[in-house]
Design goal:
Blueprint (H helix, E strand, L loop, with lengths): L5 E6 L2 E11 L2 E4 L7 H14 L7 E5 L4 H11 L3 E4 L11 E6 L6 E6 L4 H4 L3 E9 L3 H12 L3 E11 L8 E6 L1 E3 L1
Helix pairs in contact: 1-2
Length: 182
Amino acid sequence: MSERETYTVNVAGLTRHFPLFEVAPGVRIAIFNMLGDTYIVKACATALAERLKNSAAGVLVTAEAKGIPLIYEMSALMGLPYIVLRKSYKSYMGDAIKAETVSITTGKPQQLYLDEKDIALINDHPVILIDDVVSTGSTLKGMEKIITAAGGRVAEIAAVFTEGDADWSHVVALGNLPVFVD
């Protein structure tokens, strides 16, 4: 097996080497997977929490799954509750609110669900949307639809990284990852 090419990133005072994977013919991205990397989670959560400390938001919201350790740590640092939008419906979620997204890494439509029990935390409240990487904006749009349907409003959007050269100036991010086109 040959060694996979990587892209080196410095974020929140740490250096990591992200493997490059082809997500479409001739298009590669650096895969940031913070799951299991306690040091990067804690450092990025601390940096994002510091940048968001003056937000009027009352709750943090992320999509399942890679953002979960990040939002948990940010919740503890910021003293705010957090909500995870699930990617599959469970019967205990009751009258859940759902929206469709398309992830760059899967290339397929996915559903996001807001558990019925969490609607009250969002209704009439400002929220901060948290993601690990904002690539196309599809997940953000799905999350925003859910927040609006639940009666809340998005106060801030934050991510460890944005990706590509779209205008991500509305996203509080610690860095930007390039998209590699062969």
